[in-house]
Amino acid sequence: GFDPFAGGICRGLVASALGRSYLGVDIRPEQVDANESHGAKGARWVSANAATFSPPPSDFVFSCPPYGSLEVYSDDPRDLSTMAWDEFGQSYSAAIGRSVDALRPDRFAAFLVGNYKERGVLRDLASLTVEAFGRAGADLYADMVYVQPVGSAALRAAASFPTNRRPMPRHQMLLVFVKGDRKCAAKYVTEQAAS
Fold first, then answer.
1. pTM of the entire structure?
2. Of the candidates 42, 66, 46, which has an alpha carbon nearest to the alpha carbon of residue 55?
3. What sign does the CA torsion over 20, 25, 29, 30 have?
4. Residue 5: exposed, middle, or buried by beta-carbon count in 10 A (0-12, 13-18, 19+)?
5. Distance CA 19, CA 179 (A)
6. Which of 13-22, 54-63, 146-155 has the lowest mean pLDDT?
7. Nearest residue to 44 (alpha-carbon basis) of 52, 35, 53
8. Which of 8, 74, 92, 164 is least buried, going by the fewest C-beta atoms within 10 A?
9. Which region, left, alpha or beta, applies to residue 123 given φ > 0 means left and ψ of -120 to 50 means alpha?
């Protein structure tokens, strides 16, 4: 599988444990070095800009992209976490386009995303993701809601809701896309699961 926004080791480690190949891209060389140091069999990472990187052909594209500048990971101006929303959207969409180009026909892609607040404005990352995949030639196949534990959200909401009247989101969306024929893609996944 190919992961254009690898970040830490998690997805590569899971792919390795399942006996699957994994290629993750992260713009930060120090993150790539840290991931590689774990020696996850079948998983590798490269330091590159996902918006300009040309991935090899892949049977699955999956990621959990950065949520804009919610967490800034570096001072590299090519890092999505340093970009204003418009520039973020262009670079993010370019990375998705390159990923879909590398995705073999009749295959799935999956992104875990959530809308987020940035300087008081709600950013619709879910819609941006659907639009970018659609322009690249992959249709939205399914969406699932991932509900996060409530934890201290109720306490934080109690303190902030009276002044800003904004609810505390506690979910993300798993968006699944298909490039090509959905029945052939499903058949491929079934065959791979059996092997």
1. 0.87
2. 46
3. negative
4. buried
5. 24
6. 146-155
7. 35
8. 164
9. beta
Distance from C-alpha of 194 to C-alpha of 191, rounded to nearest angstrom:
5
Determine the Cα–Cα distance for residues 181 and 119; give it in Å rounded to an integer: 41
The model's pLDDT over 94-128, given as tens digits with 9 standing for 90+, comes to 999 999 999 999 999 999 999 888 888 889 999 99
Tell me the C-alpha distance between 106 and 30, whole Å.
Answer: 35
Report helix, strand or coil for 116: strand
Reading the block at residue 106, the tokens are: 């009749």
Distance CA 158, CA 138 (A): 41
Encode 68-90 in three state secondary structure.
Answer: CCCCCCCCCCCCHHHCCHHHHHH
Three-state SS at 35: helix
Amino acid at 92: Y
Residue in the structure block whose two tokens are 């249709």: 139
What are the φ and ψ backbone dihedral angles of 146, each rounded to 5 degrees? -105, 110
pLDDT at 153 over 90: no
Mean pLDDT, residues 64-87: 89
